[in-house]
């Protein structure tokens, strides 16, 4: 698997950044043409779309609330734990990409300071699932950035070789990403453009993570079995965190996350024990 991933990485070119940058530029031009570069106008032009999506998705609050948790990096990454054993290069890219995404998210939220829907809209007019978020950090959606950062890494790391399969794989990744990202509108946490912009930034972050990994071996230790005790300790901590989440909110997604962590933990311990025995 690692060989195929390295082959996929070697084919990537910086020109892949052009499309997402053009999409962001197109959104900026659209907002400018609508006179919506200011915070109030930005919110106003999205209100009807926000209400429509929110009411449509809000009919399934439990589903939305479970799916939106995947935008938490600790939850999403728990389902990818086995790649540490079978494809550590993916994890190298994920960590680099998530660091880039964190920088983008913190910086842009601070610059734009767009109030959340619950700050400016009447709570009786839309569906709020889970905690009522009232900060001035709506743009861009951090969950959407995280989701598409991880999916972008998976997209290019596991890209099939046949053209037909490439199209299907890319389509699947985009659809899954949008379903997960728009749960942020369904739960009343973000406006639609927050999610779209966040998704594009996430794609850029994931792609940047791959290019960083291709050039620098920052996280090369992840694939070295002598560091597995550190990884085992980290996964034990993650298991404890998952148990705490279950105690606090008792969501199905947290049970699945815990199950995935336990399976990964067992596999890592098993691989490390075999290597230790051989030595």
From TrEMBL:
What residue ranges are annotated as transmembrane?
67-87, 94-112, 141-160, 167-185, 191-212, 227-247, 253-273
Q: Which residues are in coiled coils? A: none
CDD domains on file: PAP2_like
**Which Pfam families has this protein been placed in?**
PAP2
Decide whether keyword Glycoprotein is in the record.
Answer: no
Phosphatidic acid phosphatase type 2/haloperoxidase domain ranges (all copies): 93-210
Has UniProt tagged this entry with the keyword Zinc? no
Sorted UniProt keywords: Membrane, Transmembrane, Transmembrane helix
What PANTHER family does this protein's entry cite?
AT30094P, SPHINGOSINE-1-PHOSPHATE PHOSPHOHYDROLASE
The name under which this protein is listed is Phosphatase PAP2 family protein
According to its UniProt entry, this protein's organism is: Pedobacter albus
């Amino acid at each position: 698997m690692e060989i195929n991933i390295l082959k996929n990485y070697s084919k990537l070119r910086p020109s892949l950044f052009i499309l997402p940058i053009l999409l962001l530029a197109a959104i900026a031009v659209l907002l400018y043409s609508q006179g919506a570069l200011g915070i109030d106008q930005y919110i106003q032009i999205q209100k009807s779309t926000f209400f429509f999506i929110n009411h449509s998705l809000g009919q399934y609050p439990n589903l939305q609330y479970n799916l939106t948790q995947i935008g938490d990096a600790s939850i999403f990454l728990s389902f990818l734990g086995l790649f540490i054993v079978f494809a550590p290069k993916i994890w190298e890219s994920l960590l680099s990409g998530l660091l880039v995404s964190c920088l983008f998210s913190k910086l842009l939220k601070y610059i734009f300071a767009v109030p959340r829907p619950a700050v400016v809209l009447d709570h009786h007019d839309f569906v709020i699932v889970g905690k009522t978020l009232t900060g001035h950090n709506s743009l861009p959606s951090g969950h959407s950035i995280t989701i598409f950062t991880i999916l972008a890494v998976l997209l290019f790391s596991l890209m099939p070789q046949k053209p037909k399969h490439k199209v299907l794989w890319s389509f699947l990744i985009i659809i899954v990403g949008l379903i997960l990202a728009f749960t942020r509108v369904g739960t009343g946490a973000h406006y639609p453009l927050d999610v779209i912009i966040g998704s594009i930034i996430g794609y850029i972050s994931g792609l940047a993570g791959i290019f960083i990994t291709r050039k620098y071996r920052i996280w090369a230790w992840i694939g070295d079995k002598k560091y597995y005790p550190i990884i085992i300790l980290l996964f034990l901590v993650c298991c404890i965190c998952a148990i705490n989440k279950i105690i606090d909110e008792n969501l199905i997604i947290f049970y699945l996350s815990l199950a995935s962590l336990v399976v990964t933990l067992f596999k890592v311990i098993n691989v490390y024990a075999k290597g230790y025995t051989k030595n």
